[in-house]
Structure formats: structure tokens, C-alpha cells
Predict the 3D structure of the following.
Amino acid sequence: MKESRQISEKLFIFILFLAVLVQGFVYFKYPSRYEFEEIKDSIIQLVATNGKYYRTPRSAVGGKMYEFSKMVDRDIPLDARVQFINDSNDGTDMDRYFRISMWFSRVRKVDYNFERNPNLQDVEKIMKRSGSRYLVTYSENMPFYNFGVGDRQVPGGKLYRMDKEGLALERQYD
Amino acid sequence: MIEMIMLLVLWVLVGYSVSRLFLDRLGLSLGYDIGISLALGMGVNTIFFLLFSLGEIRVTAALIWSGTLVVLALLQIARMYFKVGLEKEKESLRKLIAMRYSLTDFALLTAIGVFLFQLYYKALRMGFQRPDEWSFWGVATKRIFQTGSVFLKDIVYIGFDRYPLHLPINAASLNIVAGSFVENYSRLIGPTTMVFLTVMVGVFLQETKLKRTEILLFLILLLTAGHELTIISALLYADTPYAYFYTAAIILFSTVILRPNMERKRIYLAAGLLLALSSWTKMEGAIIGFASACTLYIFDYIYSRKTRKFELAEPAILIGVTVSLPVMWSIIGTFQNYAKAGWTAKMFSNMDNLFENTWVVARQMYVKTVRRDNYSLFWGWVVLAAGALVVWFRENKLGLLLFTLIVLNVGYLFASYLFVFGPAEGLTAASFERYIIHVLPCGVMLVAVIYANLKGRFIRKDLYEK
């Protein structure tokens, strides 16, 4: 009787071993669509843009969006509040601007407005409401809502400043 | 990097000392103390950070080092005062040295070690990659690192001001002691919590009286559950730490189900504390934590009502401690005039076509759970175990508790997709494969309990009948 119990117990462990083996086989046989190397092709593609702009470059030089972030960080006074607007037509939402603000070296007051593609009057209202003095926009080679002009692709980043007359272009980074 | 590892070790030592002091009288194995040590250590650091921020004192590297060391020293003095000696450690060490591993066990243990090590490799070789890392967890960590304070008003964007900061505080502390903000290194917490989660589940599996080979096989079942678990564990995401705190609370609480005569209040307090930490790790944690604390108490009350008298202090401790951190953060948020969470604007936007949406959401949740390039077969085992529990083992208290908690979590997510999320996220069951990680360890534990039950039914009656 004891021997038969032993055999059954081994059988149980064997079944468990098989289950783990099969699960492990499926795990390694079908690599995830979201594996690290594929992130730029899947997740980033999912938000319809190019992954290389989002990565923090290994060196200080390289990565135009990264360099833009550092330049604009230097050009905006430390006490000024920065506004980001959702100016994407490509489904990237605010991802570009989350990343840019993430790379700012100095602690800043930032505001994000998620309303899609606001026009000039909307933006001025948004900035008055939040008390922001600067607006940062950026595009690489993505379809881009060119703020104040309309729908066309304009590479590079821009820094706008809000003064008494309204919003004015402070600096263009090409 | 070396400073970060040293701080992690100090957190473990602080948490371990707290656990040894507090749970010593209960006669639990040393595995419990080791398993929950990181959670308690991170909790102590969070409270420490919070208190200094409230006092408007900037937290610096010197303050973290000296504070942690002082707390550790005080805990050692308290251990001497309360006569919590090293006998338990010596005994465990003796057992560990005397332990003989078969070749199979050794191979399985190596596989687990390699699997956990590769999480660190994955975490450390790249900067932030996923949108949530740079849109919230990373930004919050960096801002805490830059300001040395938990108050992010005007710094983090509107919509996330009220988010829980347990993970960013600890990730920022690692960066503060290292002296610079490094994206890759901020991720150290993910794999480390996964290591301690594995230890904790291993401790629970020991309670099921399974053989060592079986325990190791179940741990491999946990680690190879799905690619989403592997990837998220290697990123600065709150899901793995959340799963660790939540599971640790459940496992610690399960001791009162396994040992009906155990002193309740200490376990309730410790489990409540772990649930409070999980509640302040993710936004949804507050509601889930409260609901789980109520579920745990109800189970214990029902199963022990014939042998024990009702004491109001018990549920008050468990539920009160669980909600303490989220309530405190909510009060602070109100005083700081933090904006409402972003998702509140989208609530009830899926109410049109509710009946049709119910089916759409359920189908999306199903698709995300069974995809073979993600969870392969794992949830299949859990469904089989749940079926066996309902059909054959309804008297299994622990199985029923775990099953209820899984249903509670999945049900909460289902309701969230229908009533809280907007259509874009709700109708696609966005990130369900990530959220379900929270109860993945409970799934493994349920499968193990049912496996032990099946074994008991077919070969050994003494194995697992409670």
C-alpha cells in the first residue's frame, strides 16, 4: 500500500513537472510582442511615432528631441510656468511632451492640456487659466499640427511667450 | 549603484528587524520575516520621507543614510530590550546548512535564480521605455529626487497630483543616495520586489506541506506565468511592488486561517500595514485594499465565530490601518488643493449601450488573458483549479479565500472598464494584462492549494485538510 502511494505521489509530481514544462515551452516559444527590442516597433509604433526620439541618448550629444529639451530648459526662466498642449494629429497624445519635461534638468512648473488640437484663442485661454508664460511645441518628422498656421508638417521645436498682446514666437529651434 | 544596493540591504535589515520584533511571539517561520522585510523597510522609508516633507525639510542623502541607520540601531536596542534573541536565526541557519538538495531541486533552484537575475539584467540595460514610465512614475521619481520632497504641487501635471507616491519615493531615495538620477537604476525596485514576492510565495507553499520539488516547480510556474509579468517586473511600474505588498498581506493573514488559535491582533495589524502600503502604491489600491481587508475579516469571522468572541478592535485594526495611508494622502491633497484625478472626468462615459459594452469588455479581458505570447497557459491552470475548488473542495477555506480575492480583483477591473474608464481605454480593456499581475501570485497559490487537495484526496488524507 505504501509503495503504491509512493508511485502515485511521483505521478503527481510528474504531472506538475509536465505542466511546468509545457508552460515554459510556450513561454519561450512565443516571445512577447512587447519585448524590449520590439518596444520601438510595437508600443511606440502603436502611438504612431518613431521610438528613437523617446529614448534618453547614451551620450549628451545625439537625439534631437533630447537636445531640444535641454535647450528650451535653458531658455525658459526658472520661475516661469510652462504650458504643453495636445497638438498631435497622429495619436501620440502628450507622450512627446511628457518625455521632454522628463528631460528638463531643472524643477519646473508645467501644465498639460489634453484637449486635442486647440486653436490660437483656445491656447491663449488655456494659458491664462493656468497662468503659464511659455508654450513649448515640438515636432520631428511626424505629422504635426503647426500651431497658429494649420495642419502641415513643420520640423523642429518652437518656444512661444505669452505677453499682453497675446502669444508670440520667442524662438525657433531648427 | 553600490550606494543603491547598500540602501536596499539596509531597508531589508530594517524591515526584518521590525518583523522580528513584532511577530516574534507568533511562532511563525523565519521565512515570513524575510519575505515581508523589504515591504516593511520600504514602508519605513516612505513614512520617514513623508514626515520630513511635512516638516518642510529637504530629504538629502545624508539624511536618508543617517535616518535609516538610526532606525536600525534603535530596532536592535528594542530587540535587546524585548529579549528577541538570535536563537531563531541560528536554528534556521543550522537547518539550512543541514539541508540536502537532490539534483532536480538544485537544477530547479538554479533556474529560479537565473530567471530572477535576468530581470535585473533587463531592468538595468535600458532607460525608460514605456509611456507610463516617462509620463508618471519616472517624472514623479525625478521630481522627488530634485526637490527632496513628496509634495509635487505645480510640478507633476494636472490629473496625476493625487496619485500614490510609495514607489516614486523609494525609487527617488535610491537616486538621492547615488547622487544622480539614472533612469535604469531607478528600476532596481521592480526586480527586487519580484525576488521577495517569490520568497513570500515559497513560504506560503511550505504551509501547504508540499515537497520541496513541488514548491520549486510552483515557483517556476509563477515566474514563467507570462511575458507581461517578466517585462513589468523589470520596469519602473508599480504593478510588481503592488502585487508583492498585496500578496504579502494575504499570505500573512492566511496564517490565522491555517492556525485558528493564533493571536489575531498582531497579524491583523501587520496585514493591515501591508495592505496600506499596497493601497498607497496604486490608485485603485485604495478601494481594492479596503474591499480585501473586509473580505479577509469576514472569512476569519465566519470560520472562527464558534470558537472565538467578536471583538470590535479586530476589524477596526485591520480596516483602519489599511485605509490609513490613502486617507492621509487624500487629506493632504485637499489641504494642498491638488486637482482631482484625471480619470474622474471620464467616469460613466460608457453608460450608453451598457449591455453591449459588457460583452465587449468581457471579450477583451478574455483575449488579453489567453494570448499565448503573453500569459500562455497560466490562467488556464487557475481556471481549472477554481473549477475543482467549486466542484470538489468547497470546504477548503484557504482556497475559497484566494478564489474570492481573485474574483474581487477581476470584478473590480471589469466594473472599472465599464464605469470609470473612458471608451478608448474601457472598451479595449486597456492594460488588463498588466493589472491582472496584482492577483497572479494568488492564482499560483490557489493552484497549489488545489493540487495539494487533489493529492490528499487520492493518496494521502493527512496532507491538506483544514
